[in-house]
Specification:
The complex is a heterodimer of chains A (110) and B (135). In chain A, 85% of the residues lie in helices and 0% in strands. Chain A has helices at 3-28, 34-60, 63-84, 91-109. In chain A, helix 3 runs antiparallel to helix 4. The longest helix of chain A has 27 residues, at 34-60. Chain B has one domain (2-134). In chain B, 35% of the residues are buried. The radius of gyration of chain B is 18 Å and the shape is globular. In chain B, helix 2 (12-36) packs antiparallel against helix 4, helix 2 (12-36) packs across helix 6 (90-101) and helix 5 (80-87) packs antiparallel against helix 7 (108-134). The chains are: A mainly alpha (110), B mainly alpha (135). At the A-B interface, helix 1, helix 3 and helix 4 of A face helix 4, helix 5 and helix 7 of B.
């Protein structure tokens, strides 16, 4: 794996996570307000760019190699939703998220 | 009757389940479509654009769009710390449907991973179910 592909994998993950958080924030605002439109458009753009970076990476790497990184998104999104969106993250929710991540990694390793 | 149906359809938990089912259906249709799609010359084949010739791919795309819309609806009501882990149920349903509908073989290790995801989803779902009962 070259430095460039490591950076691309990182970017795809960051954009996917950011996209989810932005869309979540948009959907909590008043629908069709300026705030909603701004966050929705940014979130959708982030998800789209992440999608195409992933598509490009898939030409180069096996899905099973890229999938664990996707699996990490569960834990990262839970933690960031608590930190940035001030959502409640109980130990139990965190534990559940960690189990899911571990499961996704295990599936892709086989 | 319509009132009851409406209440049911507008329930965010129903929409979450619906979204997960749509993602699963889309994956199965996309896989079916991708396999039957004509092979393009090597330079173009990576785009997957030939898949558009298959009706299965269009069904897949339709399911993707529907799932995204219902996911947005879910986001309006359910915290991300709950909704996103639960949406990972697709990692259980997709392998299961690949096994049932596409005759794919799942290794023991993969089954273990799938079970782990399922336990994680249930861990998140249980307190939520209790929370709902109180409401």
């Amino acid at each position: 794996m070259t430095v460039i592909s490591a950076v691309l994998i990182f970017f795809a993950l960051v954009l996917f996570v950011a996209g989810q958080l932005l869309l979540k924030h948009a959907m909590e605002s008043t629908l069709y307000s300026t705030r909603f439109t701004k966050f929705f458009a940014t979130g959708l753009t982030a998800m789209t760019i992440s999608f195409f970076i992933t598509l490009g990476l898939l030409q180069q790497f096996d899905l099973s190699y890229l999938y664990p990184f996707q699996g990490l998104s569960v834990v990262i999104i839970s933690v960031l939703a608590a930190a940035i969106l001030r959502e409640k993250l109980t130990p139990r929710l965190f534990f559940g998220a960690a189990l899911i991540s571990a499961g996704v990694v295990l599936v892709s390793l086989s | 009757m319509i009132q009851v149906l409406k209440k049911f359809l507008l329930n965010p938990w129903f929409q979450l389940a619906f979204s997960v089912l749509c993602v699963t259906a889309s994956e199965v249709f996309l896989k079916r479509g991708a396999v039957e799609a004509p092979k393009l010359p090597k330079e173009l084949n990576w785009t997957g654009v030939s898949g558009l010739a298959s009706a299965n791919v269009w069904f897949g795309i339709l399911f993707v769009i529907v799932s995204f819309v219902s996911w947005l609806y879910v986001l309006r009501f359910v915290p991300l710390t709950v909704a996103f882990p639960l949406s990972n149920l697709v990692h259980v349903l997709v392998p299961l449907s690949s096994w049932v509908f596409l005759d794919e073989i799942i290794s023991i290790q993969r089954w273990c991973g799938i079970v782990l995801v399922l336990i994680g989803v249930l861990t998140v779902a249980k307190p939520v179910a209790r929370m709902e009962e109180k409401l």
